[in-house]
Amino acid sequence: MSVRLVSLLCLIASFECASVRPPQDQNTDDFDEEGYHPSSKTLRSLHSSDTHGPVLPNPWIQTNWIELAKSELQKAKDVTENVKVKKAKNVIFFIGDGMGVSTLASARLYNAETKNLRQTDIYLAWERMPHVALSRTYNVDRSTPDSAGTATAYLCGVKANYETIGVSDKVAFDNCTAIKGNEVRSIAKESIALGKWTGVVTTTRITHASPAGAYAHVANRDWEAEVPSDVKNHEQCDDIAKQLITDPENKRTRVILGGGYSMFLPVNDTASGLRQDGRNLIEEWKAMRDAQRERHKFVQNFTEFAAVDPDYVDYLLGLFSPDHMDYEADRVKRSPPQQPSLTEMTEKAIRLLRRSPNGYFLFVEGGRIDHSHHESHAYRALTDTIALSDAVQKAVEMTKQDDDTLIVVSADHSHVFTFGGYATFARSVLDLSDGAVTKDGKPFLQLNYANGPSYPDHRMINETEVPRKNLTGEDVTDTEFRQDTGIYMKSETHGGEDVAIFATGPMSHLFHGNHEQNYIAHVIMYASCVGAYRDEAHCSTTSPATSSFRLPWKHFLPFVISVGMATARLPGAY
Q: Which one from 40, 102, 106, 147 is the annotated catalytic residue?
């Protein structure tokens, strides 16, 4: 082999050779304070850099997301014949943050393990809902999305840019100046405008990306307690917490439950306060309610929460931690309980909101599924998914006598989380696979991550890369065990694949195929007759309705076949 050929081969292989060098610690300044996402500083640097190779055309620039969703909605309406058209007086919308299909599948089995369910009962609460579809999750400018742009899609009806909330794709990341005039209205705000009662419930900070999609308009999801002074024209923009408490429409939000009270308190008032403007927004909220002589409660722990009678309270604000609420796996260990469960918050919210004569819209997020995955911690992700399932089941039970409540369950995005290995059902889904043999002769986990922070747990000793750890004899089902990862990163990343939508109740049949994520908001607004859909034919109390429900199966046959094939692979199906 010639010297020239050897040199060429080495040059070609240089990138791969470099890629297997022992990973170096990443600069902590590259990530936000939580360590889950790139920091604002890093994002600004990436936005201004052209070191990412050739720039491909962006097919979604200048897309009219509203018209696209309306067109898709019309197609869904055309597919059905003689559907019983009925207005959804109430809507309960659940989001499992980061709850991709692999999370659903593994949580389903872990739920069966922990509750000793029979195979015929191995379903999460939403998996028996009659209508199922898929949601395409990407942001306008990213093939793999974040929770801010996705919240804008499924709550406001338009796709948006990465890290932006409640604004159109005309607003780029960190651009305060561009917000005015490019705000988009959420299902919650449109419901408030028509006199409906609304609520927002989450296990994250209430100002976090997903819940903020219901009420805020920002060019950077990190503007939770302040807009940094180095942002151009920062004085023109309000932070997320301030918008929740002071915006005229947001003031009418009846239920606010979650974590993150530090975002509402001044930095010089308490050790946990983060606000630089000196304002105590919690006291402002209470003073506002007192001035209006409205029955209200502010609660900070489980005991105060449990004492609230929703029949005698019209406005409920509960902030149970300075940061995010506990993972469900940790919450249940505390005795006596310090925080309410997601199920308990959901139940209290429904009991309060159902007193509304005009109906209600409730948004509920199981937000810490996502955080568990970012930490390569499958056990916590699965237990938080099961906690969300319990909350959905409670909502179904509380509304099963109604025929006017639409319930929708979906996810904002997935994660690079895999489930496989041919294990028998004798093994816990958290355990090693007993169904395949590896090339290196070592056992392997059923649940793994393509990238993430637990790489050193399995593949490094003293910061030096070594062959994969032999897990023989190790308790891999321990609650603190972290799954293996293929690439070392400070935080595991989101996945770009589609996620599921499940629905039951009025107009749930409109979820019927593979949809752009912003379509979800349009179905909900159409079903509940708010926003641009308030004058649809079914919105009139005197509109005729047929009792039959016939579908042209030629449109649905491919989808039915695919669902049938998937069903055939469920436990107990042969």
A: 147
